[in-house]
Design a protein that fits this description.
There is one protein chain. The protein has about 120 residues and is α/β, with parallel strands linked by helices. The chain contains 4 helices and 7 strands; from the N terminus they run E-E-E-H-E-E-H-E-H-E-H. The chain has helices spanning about 25-35, 55-70, 80-90, 105-110, and strands spanning about 1-5, 10-15, 20, 40-45, 50-55, 75-80, 100. The strands form 2 sheets. The protein has a 5-stranded mixed sheet with strand order 1-2-4-6-7, with helices on both faces. A hairpin with a 5-residue loop joins strand 1 and strand 2. Helix 1 packs parallel to helix 2. The protein starts with a strand and ends in a 6-residue tail after the last helix. The mean pLDDT is about 90.
Length: about 120
């Protein structure tokens, strides 16, 4: 997992690894919560290389969303692969996460459009 700061001070792009499974989720969750606790509350989660995510991986997304919403933040998902998108839709998470295919649009939304709300 990599963290890339964005133009806005509290915004960050997080690129998930190829697999997000139960053996990795405690580490992923801790790293994300550390970023959120450090003030990164506007997150773009890049899923373009994720080939497999299990229910514990989805729980990382949900717990991160709950944490950023406590601080009036938001998470958007970027470019989920077909299999990951199917799982997101099957679990109806597409109703609580905005999903973008274009990185520039996702970053613009997180860094700019949220400022006007």
């Amino acid at each position: 997992m990599t963290f890339s700061p964005l133009a806005q001070n509290n915004a960050c792009k997080i690129t998930f690894p190829v697999e997000v499974v139960m053996t990795q989720t405690p580490t992923l969750r801790a790293a994300m919560l550390q970023q959120i606790n450090a003030g990164m509350t506007q997150l773009v989660i890049d899923l373009h290389q994720v080939q497999y995510i299990d229910s514990s991986g989805l729980s990382v997304l949900i717990s991160a969303l709950k944490k950023v919403e406590e601080q009036d933040g938001e998470i958007v998902l970027l470019s989920p692969t077909a299999g990951v998108r199917a799982l997101i839709e099957l679990t109806r998470l597409h109703q609580i996460f905005s999903i973008f295919e274009d990185e520039a649009a996702a970053v613009d939304y997180i860094c700019n459009e949220l400022d006007t709300q």
